[in-house]
Amino acid sequence: MTKQLTRERLIQAALTLFKEKGYTAASTRDIAEKAGVNHLTLFRHFGSKRNLFRESVIQHVTSGDFFSGLAGKLTCRLEDDLRLIAKLYLEENLEKDSMFWLYFTEAKQDPEVSELIAEIPRRLHGFLAAYFLKLYDQGKISNGNFQMLSRMFFGLLNQYILFQSLPDEANDESADDFIHECVDLFRSKLEKEEPS
């Protein structure tokens, strides 16, 4: 087995066990066994369980390419574009719901992990704020605090993701219904008022 393949197998095994058991309960022996490698191999590749966690966070949160999925698809029509952004974001992240909780827990304990995780929303917020500014400059939407609105938009989507993992029958709305309401809310806020 090549070094790269061994690393990938260890990362995938770690992600699986971190999801199932949480960071603390997932032992390096269990991870190595699940990956089908010797326990010492894990340490040769990563040095420690914490380094393996960091590497798996990087791999996991950058596995989908959200931004390239949007490339060339945005139309500068606010409602259509927000719907597309929300749909792609939920498609990429709904499967990661259990990792969201793990990220938050670990981020509180480790500044490095916190910084890794914080980079993701910074990129998302910057992307959407720049999109809003572009529409504003084109005269298509009203002015607003675009950075804050971007955080609110992705915040609502993240809330949907987190609540889908809770065993509550009240969380039975479909992703499409949620996206519709979310987009309608932001469209109402940003839609340029026609002069009377």
From TrEMBL:
InterPro entries: Homeodomain-like_sf, HTH-type_TetR-like_transc_reg, HTH_TetR, Tet_transcr_reg_TetR-rel_C_sf. Keywords: DNA-binding, Transcription, Transcription regulation. Residues 4-64 form the HTH tetR-type domain. The keyword Protein transport does not apply. Residues 27-46 bind DNA. It holds the Pfam family TetR_N. GO terms for molecular function: DNA-binding transcription factor activity; transcription cis-regulatory region binding. PANTHER family: HTH-TYPE TRANSCRIPTIONAL REGULATOR BETI, HTH-TYPE TRANSCRIPTIONAL REGULATOR RUTR. This is Transcriptional regulator.
